Amino acid sequence: MNGLLDPLPWLILLPLAWASLAFLLGPGRGGRLALAGLAGQLALALWLARRLIEGGPVSHAVGGWGAPLGIDLYADGLSAVMLLLTQAVALPLAFYARAYFAQGAGQFWPLAGFLLAAMNALFLAADLFNLYVTLELLGLAAVGLVALGGGAEPSRAALRYLVVSLAASGAYLLGVALIYGSYGTVAIAPLTPLIAAQAPLAVGLAAGLMLLGLVAKSALFPFHFWLPPAHGGAPAPVSALLSALVVKAAFYLILRLWLGPFAPLTADWGWLPALAGAGAILWGSWQALRTPRLKQLVAWSTVAQLGYLFLIFPLFGLKEPALQAGTLQAVAHGLAKAAMFAAAGILLKATGRDAVDGLAGVAGRLPLTLFAFGLAGVTLMGLPPSAGFLAKWLLIDAALEQGLWPLVAIVLAGGLLAAAYVFRVLRQAFLLAPEAQQFHPVPRRLEWAAFGLAAASVLLGLRGVELMALLGIGVAP
Amino acid sequence: MLEALSALLLLAGAGFYLAGTVGLLRFPDVYARLHALTKADNLGLGLTVLGLALQADSLAAALKLLLIWPLALAASATVSHAIARRAAGLGLKPWRPEEKRP
Amino acid sequence: MSAGLLYALAGVLLFALGLGGIVLLRHALRRILAFNVMGSGAFLVLVGLAQRDGGADPVPQAMVLTGIVVAVAATALALALLRRLPEDRP
Amino acid sequence: MNLLLDGLLVLALLWSAWRALASPDLARAVVLFIVFGLLMALAWARLNAPDIALAEAAIGAGLTGALLLDALGRLQPGTGAPAPESPAQPPANRAGRRWTGSVALVAGLLAAALAYALFQLPAPTVRLPEQVAANMAASGVDHPVTAVLLNFRGYDTLLEVAVLLIALIGLLTLGPAAGRPAAPGPANPLLKALARLLVPLMILSAGYLLWAGAHRPGGAFQAGALLAAAAVLLHLAQLLPAWASPGRLLRLGLAGGFLIFLGVAAALLAEGALLTYPPAQAGGLILLIEAGLTVSLGLILAGLFLLFAGAEERP
Fold this sequence. Notes:
Chain A has 19 helices and two strands. With about 475 residues, chain A is mostly helical.
């Protein structure tokens, strides 16, 4: 297959190209370039998905050298689904951002471009050290985006996020060093057969360090403290990108390592992430109920919803359904959270205040935005027909099959708590607006972008079958 | 013969480094310490580089080694001047024998 | 006990020192120093382990070269963010 | 005898790292960190990794040290008075001490477990150095580290340059700081003379390092770091003003190296896969990429220090 017609390299080169060209054009410019690039990337992701359905997993040896010496790119069902999620969320958010940053986006477009390039590179990478470099690119771009708002508080949140991200990358890097020291290679394909259940202690420690670093990057419960200030304080398009996509990259990597090279080591450790996930759901929802600020509420909702992703780890006795549940939850949350942050951004722009109790009377003024917020809430709560419902249904089904009752209780409790904090916002919105409250006009395109994402998260529930078919490729049952 | 000369030079260089370090630790104020550092250490460096140049395997390598010395001399002279100028700017008076030790 | 293994041990100790430093130290500049020490430790383990039975291995050396450049990029961004914090509570 | 020297170096490394993190005075901590960086360069030399020793000395100790000293200068106005004692020691109260003790214990246990694990390691099954040596002929360069960096794992390097560029873009996002304007003070005449003397030599040796990278330790990163050092020296001697937000030409310079690398990578797709150098032109293409990278890395690394480094105006 001639390299020029292979979607894998272009999914990485295209965003890198339009990001650096956007930088060349100067601050604030590059919006149209980004839209064109993202449309191309969505087409490439769809093309890749079709090729996977026809021909099974695809790999691409960079430099033509092959795995242990060179670096390979590899795409199977899981990476194709995550690539589709990334491009499908990024395109509407690009429309949203062009309208949101009316006066000037500063360096938003180059930062967002490199962030998306890093995510595509991460979903296609099949080399542990290469993953380290993509994680760093992702981390620095995300920190740059968090600090986009300027001012002391976002800078403090960005610095804390950077320090946590660097410490996590350091732990990950030490794991890679130990793996290279033990086996002489860092390519995932040749490594997987080498790592046996009774691997040397160093390999066990390496797996622990790498997974711990990635858990810190995905803001799972004990390591969630950096997420609310970072995602809550950033401009709306940035928070949407971070909450919907960036934390999913770390989760994808944990899944890839847990089921791939470290499968023999992590066989009976599934309860640990599930415990942390349950903690995340309860603590995140509790904080979401108490925080007075709207974007903090949505950020704490991210912490809670991330917990669901980690509930699937004890269910890997049956790999297929657990993987489907986790991935569908990731996709549903990605779409819904992007819509929710977009809607929150509009509400904040309109009322001028980032406060839940400042939303009185919004229902009358911004019906489409509130409807989008509500639809996203439907997915987070897991009500039919949304994709969130489908994901939770698969999770409960897999848990019942393997007799893990507590998981079912946690999933249901999480759904109720999600309902509580979503209705907290909706109730406030339907109150009568005080006279003094005046609303700033908000461009319609913002509302349509938010609504599009929310509708997608609900309609996806109806079209889940194709997603499951795509996901099954290349993943042994 | 060459090895003996080179070893001798290296030992002498080490001796000067030792003197410079003792000076750094024992001298009372910043100006005196600068003297110790720039004079003794640079001479130590010169002897060390000369000793190593004798053992270098090619003339080019020896010349590159010898290039280190003037560069280090220029850098340390400028840096010590900058430090002394800064110290004077902050009002640090040079040490007088009749004062009690700081 | 080859030289490579000795440096790998030093790397492990530096990594633990740096990790402890990141968690314990409160001043942001000190945390940046701790991160750099931790990174250097991880690099030492990477090259030290790969060369524990003699022989220079160019692959981890190229990786460490990449890592050093990434570390300076991260440090520069962290220091720029540090400049934006109010001086009273860095 | 060798192990004695390495042992001493390792002890010095650990001591300087420990003092750098635990010393009460911030200025002393930064200076000790620079000492640690230089000792690391020695350690890389002892591990016969000259490329890394060059990079560690130029970037790890040199540029990072300059950035840290610059940041230190902003934290305390240039009175030269000892920095306000920000206590590095753990807080006096019992809870604080217990927390510090437990973290130290965990870190110690981790170090002990890792150290113990290092001794249990079997010989690695995959031997990459032999594979690198076997494929050196087709890599287009003679120096193994440059071959791995630009050819075998060239994709890592492509992303790494993107990381450096994104760090600079992050710096631009933050814009001028509201910190106290750095006190410029009268220019030091001796420093001006030194700068005029050294900078041409630095540019010449940067070119040498770039050229030597093909067959001896050296390459784009070390050469770029040297160019950045020259720019920093010029700025300190007040011969080069701080950069405001970059104009069109400077932006082209900053992103140029990366765009060249990206363009070559895309063009080479026609050869069958990303970054597949045809063996005949591999050497030439790698030199083209390295030359572009040297200029861009020099500008980016200099930019990390020079951007908004002058007297900041109040926002």
